[in-house]
């Protein structure tokens, strides 16, 4: 039976072997001071005190590592190469840190286990407490005071739980707006947006820490998710419960651009107003679908943004068709496919409209981009959604200029450069046209075939409505 540390012998011949074992193992050596004490006969009391301290620290680290393996979600979040580490790894990191050593490639482990996030992410205030059945929201924001209040109000009406707002250096009232809404938790994201995979690495990290085994909703401050039945208060948790029952782990959606009738620079939208009052119009898109390797295995293109800002990407144009065919031929050759200069010759594409904003977060699930995830289960018959997209307000020109100046978006902010070219050609640009329709609610989009309902989800809504009437 191992003796407690307090009963260590005082004789040198009994203390030295134990101390030697500790120092030779290299797991807990506090540095040169300890090694010097271990080899100097003049410092026998100090040697014993160092041995006792090192022994206690090793025992504490071992207890922390054991506790970490007892909880699937872990006590801490270690990172290696930007990906969230598993609990076994974080226990190993904790053991090394407690013993004064470091592991190359792992981020620093903070003292508060509730706030441990990868380097570059700092939770401001208390951590979220997620209750069973709640949906965790996450949004990356930078200077979004114009739209943020309306977006948060919309998701509160849907019945969302805690919201994680990843603030990437806002200089306006974004944080103040978040502080005024209950259960919105600000996470300061100090790094470069582009270096985080355009926010995807940050989102994966916070969802790993706070949303494991819960449904999670990723949205932008200019996006409002709707789905069949979304006009009923508290419908989001009910939808997630239905998806659980049919064996689905996600809700697929596409972005539908809404816009005002007047020229963009004439819009007088004020923060906190209903976004649909300022931009109630949309143009029913003719979507073109192309297969992609990652889930959801489809990318959808088209709509008013392609028609106005990216007309040169229409695949039926002869030059665009020839460009794509020649590029695909060259792509088959490995020497060209791996060359950076050849990649820059790729034919331009309009924005991908497909997203998977709502998904059940579990071990192994990741966003690969804003438009793709790791593999998820999907039922044969289930509803889909639409993200009402409110990009086109009076700040459109200013935000496009900022995106280009910071080079903060994909492919050198090429999408925003196209916006600036269009605004240069027509400073009084308006998106309103003969095909425009006023948005009339989720059922309007269902009638147009822009999102799908399902028999089971419709039956559940009718049963709930009948129960409320009774």
UniProtKB/TrEMBL annotation:
Residues 1-48 are annotated as: Disordered. Pfam families: Glyco_tranf_2_4. It comes from the Bacteria. This is Glycosyltransferase family 2 protein. It comes from Paracraurococcus ruber.
